[in-house]
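Supplementary Methods, section 5.1.

A reviewer requested that the exact input to the structure prediction be made available. We therefore reproduce it here, unchanged from the version used in the analyses.
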Amino acid sequence: MRQTLVESRIEHLPTALRSDLEFVVDVGANAGQWLSAFMVFANVRRVEAFEPNPEAFLKLKRLLDNVPGARLHNFALGDEQTTLNLNVMENSFLSSALTATEVIQREYAADARVIKQVPVKVFPLDQVLSEEIPIDLMKIDVQGFEHPVLRGARKALQRTRAVLIETNFVSHYQGDGSFGTLFSHLDELGFDFWDVSSPYRGNARQALWADAVFLNRSLRQSA
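The structure derived from this sequence is encoded token-by-token as follows.
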């Protein structure tokens, strides 16, 4: 249960977002690991989950297809409607639309081997979620593709109370962001930094990545 609690990242959220949420958006849901862990501790009435990897999506579908209020989408999110090639890794958590740097090979070894490329459709979140419904929490885990996702979600983010986003301290993919660039981008979008999880450390114990929480400053009182 302790491991599930850690995976949920719920301890890093404000108290008001730890038990009862109306609407959660999961960008980069993979096989539903984070979402299922989070829903052990929090009641979530509506979920929109996005996962472009077809094999991971099938696992996500098996896990959540019968969950009331959950809608699942087998495509990627970005800043324009297009098609791109997804680099599917041995460990699907590392799969990305971007090309891996040598850090991936050095720190994750066999897990980082590209086993195939899959063409996937890409849509801006604002095009998919056009309805003006408040979002309690948006989780983003897209392996270096965070900035395009944010650019395509500007309207949705205006009505989002909190963002839980994976952030790299060391570049993992060509053209990816960093904690610094994500901090600046989210600040521009109206979000304040709230908390960060314990980092994942590499072979030399260097902090490589963590999950960070940002709160919408215009909705801060209700967070």
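The chain has a mean pLDDT of 94. These observations are discussed further in the main text.
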